[in-house]
Structures are given as C-alpha cells and as structure tokens.
Amino acid sequence: MSWRGPTGGRRQHARGAAISGGDPFFSSVVLLCLQEEGANGTNVFIDQSSVGRALTTVGNAVWDNVVAPPTGLLTTGKFDGVGDSITAADAADLEPGAGDFTIELWANPTNNVGARTLICKSSSVSSFGPWLIQRQGANWTYYLSSAGIAWDISSNTLMGASTAGAWQHLAISRTGTTFTPFVAGVAGTSKVSALGLIDNAFPVCIGSLQLGFGQDFAGNIAAVRYTIGVGRYTANFTPPSLPQPTS
Question: Which end of the chain lies in a sparser environment, N or C, as judged by fewer CB atoms within 10 Å?
C-alpha cells in the first residue's frame, strides 16, 4: 500500500465546520466539496478548501439521504442525469500544468448504461480539456490532453470496473511523468508523459460535460477533493476515511 495522506475515524461535525484529522497537504487542496452534508433536498454546496471558492448549482443537483452514503457521511450529492451539475469557475490555481496533482471522489452510479461524465474541466469530449473522468458502460475511464486538439496523453483509458448501485472511490494521481488511475484503491492503466496539461478557460464541472453537451451523470457523488502539486497515490491503497480533513 502507498497512500500519502492520513486516514481517521468518523468525525461528528456541523455542516461546513472544520474537520480535524490533519491533512499534511491541505494547503495544496484547491477544491473540497460534497462532504459538508446539507439537508436532504437542498441545493447549496460549499467549498471546504482554504480557497473557499464559490460553487454554482445547475439543474436539480441536491443533497440526498435516501441513497445510503459512504461510511462517515450523512448526505451526498444527487444527480438525476438530466442537466444536473455543480461547477467551480475557472481559475489559475485549478490548472495542474506539468506538476503533480490528484483528483479524487466517491461515486455511486444509478446504472451502467451509456457514457456519463463524472467530473471534468472541459465542455465536451471533443473540446479536449486538461482532464475528464467518465463512466463508459460498466467501466470508469479517463482522458488527458496537453494541447487541446486531441486526447493525446490519455483517451478513454481504463481506470477500473464500475459497480452500479455501490459506492466506489475514484482517483487520478500524477507523480512526475506518471498518471495513475485508481478505483477502490486499485490501480488501473497508467500513462506516462512529461507534457503539461492544457490550461483552458472552462470551469471544473461535477456531474456533467456542461454547456448542454449531455452525458450527464445519474447517481450520487461525495467527497470531491482536488489537490495541486501533490500526487497522493502511487500504488494500491485503502481509500481515505470520510469526511476528509479541512485543515
């Protein structure tokens, strides 16, 4: 096992309150959301990173306690698969460039039908943003682009199998020139490239390709954490406990 961050037990907390536990890389976290536990059916989401960036709810994305959340949480984000998303506006600190980074979250898809976008920083599969994670049928796959004219680093590369109706931790972690995907802490197909990822003007979008391109995710999402400058995972690991630290 190789996991570069801490784990801990369940922590009781008020919505949006600081969660102790100590993440040594917390200062490098640029987005942390969907673990602050809003009331069932409400649609206000908070970034718990030190940046505290504004999040915009699109469509019918809401907090949900009907689908049992992963251990440690009480509610998670529900996406009905028709135009729902949560977005964070483009900013310079969201661009990984040629540096290390980690994108991770928990997902529980309603089904394994068709192609559905879990999280991205692009407007469509043909806009070639820096990174994108999708469910393609019964598989999780990922895309990476350096130049914005093709998925030249990774195109529909296998992360691992998707299990409909069950929670799975997903992550992409870059360390040096190696990009490694993980599903439930198990490494998928890695890619090696020294190229930097493209810097674009699109927001980070959770649950959709955004801008009406479809492929909207149907299911629940929790504990999105985006870390710049740190490749947290380099080999198989036990997924972190929830909620994740906010300091």
Answer: N
Decide if 110 contacts 218 (C-beta within 8 A).
yes
Task: Check pLDDT > 60 for residue 1.
Answer: no
Looking at the domain assignment, is residue 49 inside a domain? Answer: yes
- Structural domain boundaries enclosing 162: 26-228
CATH number of the domain that residue 124 is part of: 2.60.120.200
Gap between the Cα atoms of 118 and 220, Å rounded = 10
Among 215, 108, 230, 110, smallest CA distance to 169 is for 108
* 17 or 145, which is more confident: 145
Q: Quickly list H helices, 126-172.
A: none
What predicted TM-score, i.e. pTM, was given to this entire model? 0.91
The amino acid at 87: T
Give the model confidence (pLDDT) of 161-201 as tens digits: 999 999 999 999 999 999 999 999 999 999 999 999 999 99
| DSSP 8-state secondary structure symbol assigned to residue 28 | G
Instruction: Give how many domains the chain has, as a whole number.
Output: 1
- How far is residue 205 CA from its own chain's centroid? 9
Residue 224 tokens read as 């999105």
Q: Are 130 and 121 in contact (CB under 8 A)?
A: yes
Does residue 208 lie in a domain region? yes
Asked whether 201 and 91 are in contact (CB, 8 A), the reply is no
State the Cα angle at 22 between 19 and 26, rounded to 5°.
Answer: 90
pLDDT in tens, 3-45: 343 333 333 344 545 555 689 999 999 999 999 889 999 999 9
Query: Contact 244/8 with Cβ under 8 angstroms?
Result: no
Estimate the share of the chain in helix, then strand, then coil, as percent rounded to the nearest 5. Answer: 0, 35, 60
No. of helices (H) and no. of strands (E), the chain:
0, 16
